[in-house]
Amino acid sequence: MSITGNAKIAGVIGWPVGHSLSPRLHGYWLDHYGIDGSYIPLAVEPENLADALSALSKLGIVGVNLTVPHKEAAIGLVDKVDDAAARIGAVNTVVVLKDGSLEGRNTDGYGFIASLSSSAALQSVKEKPVVVLGAGGAARSIIVALQDYGVGSIRLTNRTRERADQMREEIGGDIDVVSWDQRAAVLEDAMLLVNTTTLGMGGQPALELDLDSLPTEAIVNDIVYSPLKTDLLAKAAERGNPTVDGVGMLLHQARPGFAAWFGREPEVTDALQAHVLNRSGF
Ligand code: ATR
């Protein structure tokens, strides 16, 4: 769609940024809703992040998403952060406020819960344990979101145990850290299993996990979305577990930013998902 001189401009800052699906995602919504706006990729090296962020209001840009490797560094570079960003320790969405100051938000946890609840019955996860595989940045936003949602207890397991122990200490709440070699055993009575590791992603090693002790009612969610149907999800579906793939989190996390920048609450639809995935080689 062509834009006018009044167009609102937002974008995504990353280094590199070429892999980001956000321009396709926001571009679809801009077209779909006929909004006079544009969402552009901004390749910014880490040492230039501070300059790039401070230039946003000067350029009249309404806001940006942040992707690898900028999310953590941005915490110290914005004027204020919302509660989720402060607890997660990372910013994925920056809104330029009317006075030109920058508000850093984190919508990854929102995206995670919105994706899960739109495709599975989530109520039971408040009563039974949740198992989280992995202790990277994605795990952190998911654990904070699960706690805010009101889950009872979380069993956290990671190849490098110290990372899981550190995360438990920093986040607090009811988190049990379990050794990576015990990951199959802790599936007993869990109502939700989330893979936040890169295992099972194209080009990465497979996730080896015996699902035998997982109740068949438990929801299985893989945040990997390339491939969309990972071996974990295929194995879970075969034994009758409800499954949720990883693309929903990506699509839903984008909604609050789009609404703040362009003034319209966007919808996640099958057509959006097809647009974002199909022409991106998935
Ligand atoms: P992100 O911030 O996107 O979550 P990350 O910080 O690189 O990414 O975390 C990747 C996760 O996948 C980590 O939990 C990592 O485990 P380690 O903390 O031990 O590195 C996990 N992971 C990656 N490769 C793995 C492998 N071969 N076996 C087990 N876990 C792996």
Walk me through the structure:
There is one protein chain. By secondary structure, the chain is of the alpha/beta class. It folds into two domains: 8-107 and 254-276, Leucine Dehydrogenase, chain A, domain 1 (Rossmann fold), CATH 3.40.50.10860; 109-245, NAD(P)-binding Rossmann-like Domain (Rossmann fold, 3-Layer(aba) Sandwich). The protein has helices at 22-32, 49-59, 83-88, 108-119, 137-149, 161-171, 231-238, 247-253, 255-262, 270-278, and strands at 8-14, 37-43, 63-66, 80-81, 93-96, 102-105, 130-133, 154-158, 175-179, 192-195, 219-222, 243-244. Strands 2-1-3-5-6-4 form a six-stranded mixed beta sheet, with helices on both faces. Strands 9-8-7-10-11-12 form a six-stranded parallel beta sheet. Helix 1 (22-32) packs across helix 10, helix 4 packs across helix 5 and helix 4 (108-119) crosses helix 8 (247-253). It binds 2'-monophosphoadenosine-5'-diphosphate. Residues 134-139, 158-160, 163, 196-199, 205 line the site of 2'-monophosphoadenosine-5'-diphosphate (ATR).
Distinctive features:
282 residues; alpha/beta; Rossmann fold; 2 domains; six-stranded mixed sheet; six-stranded parallel sheet; 10 helices
What is the overall shape?
Answer: globular
Could you name the CATH class of the largest domain? Alpha Beta
Order of helices and strands: EHEHEEHEEHEHEHEEEHEHHH
What are the segments in which pLDDT stays under 50 over at least 5 consecutive residues?
A: none
Largest sheet: 6 strands, mixed
